[in-house]
Amino acid sequence: MKFSTFSKISAALIVALSLTACVEDGDDGIAGVIGADGMAGKNGVSTFVTRTDVIKTNANIAYAAYADSLISATTLKTVLETFVAEPTEVTFALAKKAWLDSREPYGQTEVYRFRQGPIDELKADGTLGKDDAGEGPEGLINAWPLGEAIIDYVEAVDGLSGPESPANAIGMGGIIAAKKDDGTFKYATIDATTLSNLFEHGEDGRNVTTGYHAIEFLLWGQDLNKEAAQSDSKVHDNTPGQRPFSDFNTSGGCTSGLGNVMADEICTRRGQYLVTTAELLIKELTRVTEQWEPVSGAHYKTFVAGGDVSLAKILEGMGRLSFGELAGERINVALIENSQEDEHSCFSDNTHRDIFLNAKGVQNSFNAKYVRIDGEVIEGASIYDLLVVEGHHELANKLRGALEATMSAAAVIDTKAKTGTPFDVLMQEGIAQPNIKAVIDALVAQTDDIEAVIDALGVTTNDLRDDTEQTI
């Protein structure tokens, strides 16, 4: 039988009336239980948010951020190959843009360091160390400062373009151009084995041969402050490195800097180095991303099942990046030394983005929200939610406010760079530096609040302030 709309409504009213008819006017009646007798939420946060929910969301966002880094690095390699095959001003500009784009997701992954995760502890055999020995691929991916003399031709810049010890230098022209006494290249083949074997040559931390910053140097060259009276001047201009695209020209006109005509084979080797470094970057990012892959990733499974140990790692990573690494090593060292070589992205003048994105990664971990490079939003149960559920409303809002204050301060540095005043100009001696100091102060303040959250949630971490010798 097919009911009309009227019939359906009438039937519904009859049922509703019959449910109330058994209670006469004035009767108290006994109300039946409708559905689960659940608890009310707190301030818009579900009371069903658990510590495991927070940990799982953190792991899912870590995977997304590393996956985006891998996708961007793969795109970078393709663009670099196009540039090397046809070096022009246009393809050179596209190569630089691809490098800058690749840094956007990776900068937000730095918060997953300092917590015995794959980036710091993944060994070559696929196992994960647990003793903070730093056996992971982080250095191969993102090591700095970089003594660029190990890679290619240099001019003296603040006296820091070489290794820490002159005994660990490999010869004029670096891997690309250094020659033996018989005139043959010291490193006959530029391939993954050569670059990997020479990483930190002589156990010298400045002999960095792979990773983002090796590619950055090959694309931009040194930032030589051409507006200053001499190249090693402490007066910084507002331009990045000025390497010419002809440094990759293999069809006549090969250079090593403007006016220095070289044999085409030098440019061929420079192009081989550029593409090989991108391949190595993809290899190491793949290894880390696979560890974080939901369900199947070895570290993902361990981390999600880790309970309070994993929750402590989230907070430790946030705090140690905030204080020692970002406020201390990445900002304050460059500031007090007035050294471009101590900038995180000194060749491209992209340090403002490093600062902003690292701070954003900490905020992402607290808010449990990450926007992927394709615009997709990954979000879920957050530390903020957990604090509210466990009764720490004021602390939840205090840390949220501190993180927002840091992002606001970092946004000022970012804006100044985009409008012509990069970080290396802001940090010069004799220039008022309130904007840089505001970022440092904000990072210190949010570290104080992260420590308070650690205490409130009753988890145990290492000291958040041991990663720098700086007094900040």
Your description of this structure?
- The structure is a single chain.
- Helix content is 51%, strand content 1%.
- It is mainly α.
- A two-stranded antiparallel sheet has the order 1-2.
- A hairpin with a 5-residue loop joins β1 (369-371) and β2.
- It is globular, with a radius of gyration of 28 Å.
- Residues 1-38 and 227-232 have low confidence and may be disordered.
Supply database-style keywords.
single chain, 472 residues, mainly alpha, 16 helices, 2 strands, disordered N terminus
SSE diagram, text form:
Layout: H1 5-20, H2 51-85, H3 89-107, H4 118-121, H5 138-142, H6 174-177, H7 192-197, H8 212-220, H9 264-292, H10 298-304, H11 308-337, H12 351-367, E1 369-371, E2 377-379, H13 383-389, H14 393-418, H15 423-426, H16 434-457
Antiparallel strand pairs: 1-2
Helix pairs in contact: 2-3, 2-9, 2-11, 3-8, 3-12, 8-9, 11-12, 11-16, 12-14, 13-14, 14-16
Strands in their spatial order, largest beta sheet:
1-2
- Number of strand segments: 2
Helix share bin: 40-55%
Shape: globular
Separation of termini? 80 Å
Q: Helical segment tally? A: 16
- Which series of helices and strands comes N to C? HHHHHHHHHHHHEEHHHH
Structural class computed from helices and strand pairing: mainly alpha
Q: Point out poorly predicted stretches.
A: 1-38, 227-232
Task: Please outline what is shown here.
The chain is an all-alpha fold. It has 16 helices and 2 strands. The termini are far apart.
